[in-house]
Amino acid sequence: MSIKKFNKDFEVHYYEINKFREATPVTLLNYLEEAATSHSSFVGYDMDKLKSDGIGWVLNRWVLNIERYPYWNESIVVETWPSSFERFYATREFYIKDSSGIVIGKATSLWIFINLEKRKPIRIPENFGEVYGVNFLKAVTEPYREIRILGEPEVRKEFAVRQLDIDTNDHVNNSKYVEWMLEAIPEKVYNSYMMSSLEIEYKKETRYGEKIISNCKDIIENEAFPEYIHSVQGKDDKGELAVARTLWKKRI
Q1: Which CATH architecture does the domain made up of 6-132 adopt?
Q2: Where are the domains of the chain?
Q3: Tens of pLDDT along 129-152?
């Protein structure tokens, strides 16, 4: 069975950076998803092929750990590979490397294989392991943790789902949930710290025109490494759409 990894090059553009001239966390997640999509296209399962077959992948979890964020005009490489295919779940790993080959970020992700019409999980074809290649190496070795929402949030922000938030599966793109969550981070933290770790679980879909609420709560009072719990909820009693945990470290 092949263990080859798939590489995709990126250059950080001006419209992808923050005021520190760094790629944002959402930018990096978009790079990772683009690399995964490109890998799928490379092995013969591009978006058109998947859609014509009535099948697709839905992201269930991200775990992202960042040593540093790449800067404006910096060239990086995203290296990705599947580490397992099990029934209707697949796990995909990522390294983010600078131009010297140094790993500046790591991520793991869990994807569900679905029937697009019924929006329900289906068994992954047996040949996918051979088609994509499986490497049992884990980029992030820690197991997924349960994310529990603790008490009343300290910050609540309301958003409306825009047309620009909708992806090719006709629901909100996964990176938009992270944007909403980060908007609820206190300004003093956002300006003085960088997000070093993100764990997010997607629970329900939402669509254009719906109202959502982004909740945020500080769970560790640590000046060096503040930690927050997040949830995105449907405003009209639709329950949790996504939950997350973020860890931050002081900027040098």
Answers
A1: Roll (3.10)
A2: 6-132, 155-250
A3: 999 999 999 999 988 999 988 789
Domains 6-132 and 155-250 agree in fold = yes
Where are the strands (E) in the chain, listed by range?
A: 6-11, 55-66, 75-86, 89-97, 103-115, 120-121, 155-160, 193-202, 211-220, 227-234, 240-250
Say how many C-beta atoms besides its own lie within 10 A of residue 168's C-beta.
11
Fold of the domain spanning 155-250: Thiol Ester Dehydrase; Chain A (3.10.129)
Q: Is 52 helix (H, G, I), strand (E, B) or coil?
A: helix
Check: CB of residue 161 under 8 Å from CB of residue 206: yes
Question: Residue type at 71?
Answer: Y
Which single residue is written with the structure tokens 């047309």?
163
d(CA 232, CA 92): 24
Write out pLDDT tens, residues 79-107.
999 999 999 999 999 999 999 999 999 99
Alpha-carbon distance of 74 to 102, in angstroms, equals 13
Contact 87, 36 (CB under 8 A): no
Q: pTM to 2 decimals?
A: 0.94
pLDDT band at 1 (very low <50, low <70, confident <90, very high): very low
User: Which residue has tokens 């959502």?
Assistant: 212
Alpha carbon 184 to its chain centroid, in Å, reads 18
Cβ 164 vs Cβ 172: under 8 Å: no
Cβ-based burial of 188 (10 A; exposed 0-12, middle 13-18, buried ≥19): exposed
